[in-house]
Amino acid sequence: MLEVSEIFVSLQGEGPLAGRPAVFVRLAGCVPPFCEWCDTPQALGGGRRMSVEAIEDEIARHPRALVVITGGEPFLQWDTGLERLARALGASSRQVQYETSGKAGIPANSGGFVVCSPKPLHAPVLDPDSLSRADAFKFVVEEDISPVLDFVAAHGIDARKVWLMPLGATRQDQMRRMAPVWELCVRHGFNFSARLHVLTFNDKRGV
Ligand SMILES: C[S@@+](CC[C@H](N)C(=O)[O-])C[C@H]1O[C@@H](n2cnc3c(N)ncnc32)[C@H](O)[C@@H]1O
Ligand SMILES: Nc1nc2[nH]cc(C(=O)O)c2c(=O)[nH]1
Ligand code: SF4
Ligand SMILES: [Mg+2]
Fold first, then answer.
1. What ipTM, to 2 d.p.?
2. What is this structure's pTM?
3. Is 198 within a domain?
4. Relative to the CA of 207, which of 19, 25, 69, 104 has its CA 20 to 30 Å away?
């Protein structure tokens, strides 16, 4: 069984696969300390208990090539159902992409494209083996980029795997921070990620 916050169909709004049609499975529960600016506080506690088969059935109703598994912290539920769901999706023609902070670890055989969004306050609990399994890193930037540069240097991360994304759960905050974050990407040779769903729908949920 898995604790689910929501399942919805949309477009991937951020990161390396932005723009792609996708089914989103948002698993419930995260590891404290929570990010003070988390834009999905409804997913930090418990969710609706669903069997892996029921989630597969729900996903099957939406013929999208990409399944984004997010949260909360999805890998918290690896041993209690997510591994089984990942295997079932792997056996289908779907591509899986994970959104993770990395603080619950990243399994060796996730079978998907892992986008890790490390937070400075979690850095002490992130294990190097897990981080080596991330396919891309998406850092949320408010203003000061030095924690990102320190993290990238400490873990020897290739700039081509790094995306900077402006902090902000509203259109107004995104608009305000896009230019400075864009400039930081230009200066340091990082990729830029907008938050397309926020720019398009502001702080609406389930998009
Ligand atoms: C809600 S989190 C769920 C996945 C995982 N817990 C994580 O943090 O990566 C999904 C993505 O939204 C980002 N995010 C959350 N709140 C945000 C905010 N206020 N502004 C910008 N990005 C935010 C996270 O960094 C992460 O990349
Ligand atoms: N459209 C859309 N794209 C997203 N990419 C990652 C999301 C997430 O909350 O993990 C997200 C989300 O909530 N909506
Ligand atoms: S790790 Fe992700 S889900 Fe958890 S509090 Fe931070 S942004 Fe929210
Ligand atoms: Mg989101």
1. 0.99
2. 0.98
3. no
4. 104
